[in-house]
């Protein structure tokens, strides 16, 4: 039966057509990941540092002259892009081994962020707060990053305007200027991660006290606050939705050594891999206190998760049970976990309904899961997933970082070969996903 018949809404490739397609593209420059159906996974996997933390920690080196030593840095493409961007602004970086980064701010900063780097990653917008707070101006092209619909920065702008910054749009992007920013009371209409970070990192050098209400409180923001405090900033309410920042004098902050927190989304990825392939794995460095809601959902699906001294032990049931969930800001289920949970639902028993509340366009990968035989329908910002017995390997394309990783993990449950292209997306945020899964016994290779 044609998959397209099963999932007409997505126009999935029919069996006949599928066999006419070369699964692997043999060109010099195209890298792909090939996943074979997996037996149960066993062993240990170490969770690397968090992308969504390290990039923000790197940006705050703009705030003060000095040397910064970041450890537990993930070996990912976005870190390289952020190094390029910071170098263009005047901060030098040097890798020490694969997981340590030394950044040096000698005070020679040009607050102009070029399009060629800003366009590549969303976190490039995180230089805005430090630049306008410390140097009184910032010229920044509009940030890029994953394409899941419109990603406005109105909350960043409104917050900084409340502190006295002026913004203008020009053909190259945005230009922000300010004399010295003034502390202000800012209530975010939505707990935006990026807006919280930019207002926070601008406020640490503002004149007076800034209060951010309805602030985002993701673990990565706590990590950022902890590094800022080590640099000499005064921040109260860390980890809550009300941050109170007492502005410090320019020149009073200093370079520090800081270990990046572990990546909760990568930890969740290895749990999902075990859930899908079966097995018994220690996920070292997973922080259950950062993952409470998603662990609850995994548990409802039948996955057994036991806290250990340094992480989690994960075992999988014979068959997963489908669940309903909705994405929400932290401590809710992060939108970044969604592709993993959808992949799990697609081979569970029962029907799961998923609601995306953060990025309405973040469903593009579902068409790819359907190519593997998943039975999923979209209705607005809901997806209805009817579990199938198994998936069938074919050629799919990674549309973004998290969806790409979910397709790799889904491939573990697919009969035959799953070939994932556009894996540069995965490389942006995953530190050796292939090596780590192979270390657990999965047959996953880069070709
Ligand atoms: N929003 C606005 N106005 C703004 C800012 C945000 O309307 O000024 C809306 C966005 O359009 C979106 C929602 O608020 O609908 C959430 O955006 P938020 O600002 O919280 O997210 P972000 O800072 O753009 C970060 C992560 C994302 C992660 C989200 C949500 C980084 C670099 N990116 O994005 O991570 O999905 O928070 O948790 O930290 C990823 O790692 O793959 C990734 C996409």
Structure description:
This protein is an alpha/beta fold and 447 residues long. The protein is built from 16 helices and 26 strands. Strands 23-25-1-26 form a four-stranded mixed beta sheet. A four-stranded mixed beta sheet has the order 2-15-17-16. α3 (51-59) packs parallel to α4 (77-89) and α10 runs parallel beside α12. The two termini are 31 Å apart. Uridine-diphosphate-2(N-acetylglucosaminyl) butyric acid binds at residues 51-52, 122-123, 146, 151-156, 190, 192-195, 216, 334-336, 358-359, 401-402, 429.
Assembly classification: single chain
Helix vs. strand class = alpha/beta
Ligand set: uridine-diphosphate-2(N-acetylglucosaminyl) butyric acid
Strand content: 15-25%
Shape: elongated
Q: Please report the number of helical segments.
A: 16
Distance between the termini: 31 Å
Portion in helices: 25-40%
Biggest sheet, spatial arrangement of strands? 23-25-1-26
Q: Mean of residue pLDDT?
A: 92
Rounded to an integer, what's the Rg over CA atoms? 22 Å
**Using DSSP, what is the number of strands?**
26
- The poorly predicted ranges are 1-28
